[in-house]
Amino acid sequence: MQRTDPEGHGPVRYGPPAPESGLPVLPELADVLAAAAGRTSTSEPPGGGPVLREAATGYWWRRGLRSRPEHVAAAPGAQPLLLALLTAHGGDVLMPRPCSAWWTPQVRLLGRPAYHVPTPAECGGVPDPYALLETARRVRAEGGTPHLLLLSVADDPTATVAPPELVREACEAAVDEGMHIISDETWRDTLHQPHDRVLLSPAEMCPDDVTVISDLSGALAPAAWPAAIARFPATEHAAVRRARVLDILTALGAFVAGPVSAAAAHALGEPAPVTARAARAAALHAQVAAAAHRAVLTAGALARPPQAGRHLYADLGPLRARLAARGVNDSMELEDYLSARLGTLTPGGHRFGDELGALRVRLGTGPLLGSTPEERLEALASDRPLELPHVAQSLALLGSAFDELR
């Protein structure tokens, strides 16, 4: 029986958004990288060397996820790591709508359909449990084999944190349908209110059915130093899948560079300067995201309150008539319009698996911090970053771009 691809609405301009303006590299991490830069021996082994995997183990232990080095694998970024995991598992893949921009292309690269499941009103990143069950059963009825669920409890693009009860219900539904869960927890250390917001990993509830992945660029290391880690369940089946993942990483040549491995292991050890930088960066992005959120709501658009990460997901549907007068009728045209208006790439919702006709965009807080490393560092060090001239000017530009659509 022929299966339907829910994304069969024609070609979509996928592809990653342009790199965002990042904060300057933490000097302590730069020193570690520089000290290891003279290595002339071979790169790290497939899945990472013992020092890096031991550091990853400690990182997860401190978050309540018991691990051992033989349950860990590392790769130069989350993309090759996820690709290896998808290949090792096989079967069809379900994921929330919207989702990270790079998830759908990874699935399609393997020649599989990507089935997007609606999320509940209160958050993104985790599919509605009832919609998940309905989608899984429909896929199976059409001859498919739903084997994997991708989710993110601290979500990109919506910048929301899923409530623990929702995470539990979605994970139980997935496991009952025979699916393994891949939990992307890249943004778990970027909570805007870490003492008031509870983040529950699916691996805490379904330890035998969840593989956790995390890209260090979320909070601990610069995006220019690609390093990501995966934590596998402590089961025989997971050990077989991990071995398969290592084979695939080897075939891809996806090894973490030696100097980057040293810096990543140091960051995962979370010494005081690293944790202090991560906390201060999260607080900075929280203030800027909240100001951007106010500007969006003031203009009459919609957006969930940002709770984590460096983004804001805005729905300009209420402004459709004014946008149509400017020739903007879908998310591709909205991306072009706002990118030109704001002077920075503002990716439309179609990049995140959202409906093309929906007028949704992801706004990044990084570009609002300044155009130079010095300006961004000044924002990081300030107790009142919103009052800095370059930050205030960026927020004013954002506000005026939305106000003209009222």
Task: Please tell me about this protein's structure.
- α6 links the parallel β4 and β5.
- The N and C termini lie far apart (49 Å).
- The strands form two sheets. The protein has a seven-stranded mixed sheet with strand order 1-7-6-5-4-2-3, with helices on both faces. A three-stranded antiparallel sheet has the order 8-9-10.
- It has 406 residues and is an alpha/beta fold.
- 41% of the residues lie in helices and 12% in strands.
- α10 (272-298) packs parallel to α14 (389-403).
- Residues 1-20 have low confidence and may be disordered.
Reconstruct the topology from this structure.
Blueprint: H1 27-36, H2 50-61, E1 72-75, H3 78-89, E2 92-97, H4 103-109, E3 114-118, H5 129-141, E4 146-151, H6 164-176, E5 180-184, H7 202-205, E6 210-215, E7 228-231, H8 236-252, H9 258-268, H10 272-298, E8 302-303, E9 311-315, H11 320-324, H12 331-342, E10 360-364, H13 373-381, H14 389-403
Parallel strand pairs: 2-3, 2-4, 4-5, 5-6
Antiparallel strand pairs: 1-7, 6-7, 8-9, 9-10
Helix pairs in contact: 1-9, 2-9, 3-8, 5-6, 10-14
